[in-house]
Write a structure and sequence with these properties.
The complex is a heterodimer of chains A (578) and B (617). Chain A has 578 residues and is α/β, with parallel strands linked by helices. Chain A contains 18 helices and 21 strands. Classes of the chains: A alpha/beta (578), B alpha/beta (617).
Chain lengths: 578, 617
Amino acid sequence: MINLTVNDRPVSVPEGSTILEAARKLEIRIPTLCHFKLDCFHVEHRSGSCRICVVEVEGRPNLAPACCTPVAEGMKVHTNTLRAINARRTILDLLLSDHPKDCLVCPKNLHCRLQSLAQEMGLHHILYKGEQSTYNKDLSSRAIARDLDKCIMCRRCETACNTIQTVGVLSGVNRGFDAVVAPAEFKPLAETQCVFCGQCVQACPVGALSEISYKYDVWRALDDPSRTVVVQTAPAVRVAIGEEFGLPPGSISTGKLVAALKLLGFDKVFDTDFAADLTIMEETTELIERIRSGRNLPILTSCCPGWVKFLEHQFPELIYMPSSAKSPQQMFGAIAKTWYADRIGVKPEKMTVVSIMPCLSKKYEASRDEFTRDGVPDVDIVLSTRELADMIREAGIDFAALEEAPYDAPLGESTGAAVIFGASGGVLEAALRTAADWLTGTSLESVDFEAVRGLEGIKEAVVKIGDLELKAAVCSGLGNARKLLEKIKRGEAQYHAIEIMACPGGCLNGGGQPYHRGDSSVLERRMEALYRADRELPRRKSHENPDIQLLYREFLQEPGSHIAHELLHTHYFKRKRW
Amino acid sequence: MKIDSVEKLRARAASAREAAGRVPVKILISMGTCGLAAGAQPVRQALRDEIAARNLGNSLEVVEVGCMGLCHCEPSLIAWNSATGAATIYGDVSPQQIPAILETAPGEIAAGTRTLERTWYYPEFEEKPDDPRVLQSRIVLRNTGRLNPESLDSYLAADGYAALARALTQMTPAEVIDEIVRSGLRGRGGGGFPTGRKWQFAAAQPAGEKFMICNADEGDPGAFMDRAVLEGDPHAVLEAMAIGGYATGASNGVIYIRAEYPLAVKRLEIAIRQAEEAGLLGKNIFGSGFDFSIEIKYGAGAFVCGEETALIHSIEGCRGEPTFKPPFPAVQGLWKRPTVVNNVETYACVAAILRKGADWFRSIGTPGSPGTKVFALAGKVARVGLVEVPMGTKLRDMIFELGGGIKNGRRFKAVQTGGPSGGCITEASLDVPIDYESLKALGSMMGSGGMIVMDEDDCMINIARFFLEFTLDESCGKCTPCRIGNRRLYEMLCEICDGRGTMDTLERLKRLSAVIKDTALCGLGQTSPNPVLSTLKNFEDEYLAHIRDNRCPAGVCPNLIHYEITERCVGCGICARQCPVGCIAGERKMIHQIDQARCVKCGVCYQVCKFHAVEKC
């Protein structure tokens, strides 16, 4: 242990700790901006570039950045001397001098760390005014908006994109005053290998990165009496949206969410969980086929569009591996605009399918050409959890006080297997529940496969089903996926099935979720809530969903049927690595 | 033939010396980048032609050498009798002078030529005459300008690789480091960190892959000492890197050199190939079991890559920007392995220290900064060039003795040391013996050794702005104070130069400079306000003149000067004809007038008037 004093108060911290950590132990707050840490994923971004956290250390000629200066025995740190405060205020002044002051109309208004710093430090006047950087906004993609005028070069997005996800699209370009984070050659994001996971948007402390918003397309659709507007809600949305309205993290807000959507005027409120159950039916059928034939193993899950695009760019030689099953969002759209539209006598082109997703990549997925039939997209508009929260606020709905409401039938019925899709490991666990029953021809009592749960990046399990020892792995975060796939390519690991989610921890930590601001406990609460929701549901295996059974009876015949393939399966494309 | 033992090295050196002694009369011609740019090639051709015509091939030898440091009079050459030591140094040589030079014995002066006194030039292995004008002492540049950089024999004849041989066969790595520590050698790239300590840190790391890097990313405006060494004595750097590799346990060397130095790159490549062929690099050097190889990496033209962490990132193929230390490169450097980064000039001292001992090195220079330092004299000094002097030499001696004073008889105003990160030093401090500490105390720094001299025609605010503009261009943009702060400093200096500055600007300039120094991430940012702070300290009146009186005392800032035509005007009309905006009018033979409202202050009228009738006010 290292002994030091911070503001004359003694503290002992392990060797290798930073001044920031020592100060936090004493509950002394040092403001930070570029520093970013997510304990649950062992991720820390400490570029020491913003210099907001500078403190005075006795005996040192210069101020020290608290976020990356290691403690030393006998060190005497002062966080609030005039010199440190003056330096911090000057740094903030400089940052603001090169930052648009359009906070009122900024997508990160009230979620901006620069804004809150200005407020905390009481900076009311900019002393060092001068030239400001100007760039064109990048609105090329369907998912992520880049407004480089607002970039403060904290480089957090680079850590998200390069270190965590190993996608490698964002990096510092230009130098000096013109330095900014952008794709190489300032390419528009849509032309890069970006997978739109949105982890950069979660990481960005200011309004430089945000989602492309489709709220007003939804308002317009709702206002159009000629259209039938149905909405689906992804599993991870229900355990996070409450945070936007002051409910504690980990609150299960399913009923309130449904109630709010009904108040907003959606004709029918359905559940992506229904389609998740459907996905399990198709994917498990494929899994069993591949196990029986011994071909094309391992099967990789294909629910996550970010992961799918990553595979297409980075591992084009492996595109035979993922399940051909569409993601739940796209399966929902396909069924809503065929079976369901037919049942209620609405033409598919007169139906609008809106998705509420924890994800930004889903916006991109819905726009992929192969997900349209006769020019009609399966899913019309995708909103993130955050955008829906905005709409609820805009409509003046008091979310926290809402009476709970049930989903509409028949696309609102779901099982516990579906709700855990929102957490890393959930898809695999759901598939195992069904596979075990189908392979053994019995109904297993125990449905909890604990080994594949949790926020660890790579999890492995061997599950005994009858005579079969099923080897499975679960991976979240694309950096971890890369590691695992390279192992497989080298022949160092063999599995039957692998679940991969682009975002660390799975959809609960999606790029469209309420900002977690680096608080790991928020993510842990969301995960616990998903498994709690699973336990509380009467049915916990996808194949036991009565409306899924109805769908197959009335329309799809059986999993893997010709019509199921036409509506529920897809194919992948090799894409350029650079 | 492989030189795989000390005996073979000695034999080869002896035969090389013997071969060199066979033709004692030599013409050394300066063929560094500077010499070539000034026209050394035609002079070389004239020598070749004339020697052939006169059939002198057996009685004298022409040696193409690196930079002699005589930038002010390139092309230059030395006629030298190595047997007697007699020598004549010729400057501004033209091909037409070659016959006369060839007809004159070394030591004599050929008619119609310009010669220089030899006070500037005494390498480490020659006796220095007891003359107070002999200010230079050459350790780093001992071979530069003396021997053919493309010949291994030439280097071996000058005791080349003897230090490596001694280290590998007679010393333990710890003894080598100890010798360097005791010598007091400090990093010549600017920081002045003790080289031996750096080596100790790397040596103390667990064995395994380690790297010795040579920082040849010389980028200070007006500094070219590293280029001179690499072009003039590349083997000295290779030998020292191998010594460092042996001392620290590294078997990989990387030279990070700016791609804008093609001649240095070429000569390094030749030297590396020669050393490899001779077995002086590669496996089992001198049969000691020690392996060392060197590769070259090119810098893409970023000044900040001279900072060691940025340099390492650049070698790794990443964006060239510094990272916070710790971890220090000696612990976690290139490819996360222990790495020593030393500057070219630092390496150039190492072999001499091992050959002549730490005590000898300590006997030169000052107790805190032993040894010599190479300076690049530039700016308004009469004799621009490279000089190497013992630490502790006075600036006055360098500028007025070695540099020959100020050009065109103007008055000295200030000298900027340490490049864009340094500060300016005024007349009052010219007698301070300079070393790392004294320069710092004067608000400047050693830096890599750039020395830019300014005279009374230089506006110090404009000078500060010039240096800051360089930093703006070269900042990587990583940390806020350097990225935005320096931009704001620059904008404030522009305000003052444009006559828009107020006393408040001055106050903010001071405050912001202090914060940038205090908070920037790397050395570049931390020192970037130095030109502002030192001009503020030494030339505050000039700032006040700009702000309060709207006047630029040096007559440089266009917005603060105007041109007037006095009664000396004879009405010749040349100014009116040359004025690009046509704002000068007047009858023939009558005094002309400038329309101040339309004048763009280009100064053409001032330059073209033959009667000094145009005045700058």
